[in-house]
Amino acid sequence: MPFASILSAEYAAQLLERGKPSEINQKPIGTGPFIFRKYDQDSIIYFDGHPAYWKPDDVRLSKLTFSITPDAAVRVQKLIRNECHVSAAVRPSDIASLRKAPHLRILSKQGFNMGFLAYNAIHKPLDDVRVRRALDMAIDKRSIINAVYQGHAQAAVAPLPPLQWGHDKSLKDTPRDLKQARRLLAQAGYPNGFTISLWAMPIQRPHMPNGRLMAEMIQMDWKKIGVQAKILSPEWGEYLARARRGEHDAIMLSWVSNSSDPDEWLGTLQYSNWRNKAFDNLLQKSQQTIDTAKRTQLYLKMQKIFKQEQPFTPIVYATSFQAIHKNVTGFKFNPLGPTIFSGVGLSE
């Protein structure tokens, strides 16, 4: 996992003694093929190739520079103008223009990710499964895929993506049916609908390229069944902190696996605050079992319970893209998210 990098205990002890423990993040000493040299805050990180690294074939670059560029449009222009060699987080809407640049290659893979909408099950009326099902069946996933992902995604059904072992490919979405959704709301005691908050992700990710647009489309879908959604989009740090405190009603999130284990998907339902005894018992058994075949059977049962209870709506499994210069060699597409430069070089 990227956040579990090996660090120097000796260096950490020295920083504690100096009263500067935060420098383990700002001025790190690691164990990888590149040596940290300098960080210009919110601008550039400079690395040198490690001349004495134990795997010399992993060090093919003498210099490695990360230019921090939050604006996706600026990243695209840097690629096109030959100002960088590799760019992460390529938006689906930029693929066509990048493919026209003769010096670039666009790599793509089926994504090991999921964009989803979680319902806070401790907030009324979302504590009622009929309400959650009504909201779920009102969402037009195909329109979202076309508008937000430019068609570069697959409609999500299960809470595990297809690349994950344990994925239940037998699950089916309830057909989109606005009349049935309204009937479910009426049965739950909301014939005239209700008003809830809908939190839209304020940052752009490959598997959630435009949270605001997706939220607006869901808002329009829900309006058709009488549900009024107020879109909120706090700053990202506040977004997560307030969500962990359970302040949201419905919240948009995206997830990419760090470890390729099903527990990463089914063991992280905290944003829905949903509890189900049968599901929790199966989860506990799966976490205490090492046999993959037995664990798979437990996860299949859990996914069926999930689909019945609908604590969140899986929306998409997005295609992953990476744009690189044609003279970049040895680059490997990492489905787990981080961009790895071990073994990467440049041809003449």
TrEMBL record:
Q: Name a Pfam family for this protein.
A: SBP_bac_5
Q: What are the record keywords, sorted?
A: Signal
Q: Which GO terms describe its molecular function?
A: peptide transmembrane transporter activity
Q: Does the keyword Signal apply?
A: yes
Q: Which InterPro entries match?
A: SBP_5, SBP_5_dom
Q: Does the keyword Signal belong to this entry? A: yes
> Which ranges carry the Solute-binding protein family domain?
4-274
Question: Taxonomically, which superkingdom?
Answer: Bacteria
One cellular-component annotation, GO: outer membrane-bounded periplasmic space
* Record-stated family: Belongs to the bacterial solute-binding protein 5 family.
This protein is called Putative dipeptide ABC transporter, periplasmic didpeptide-binding protein
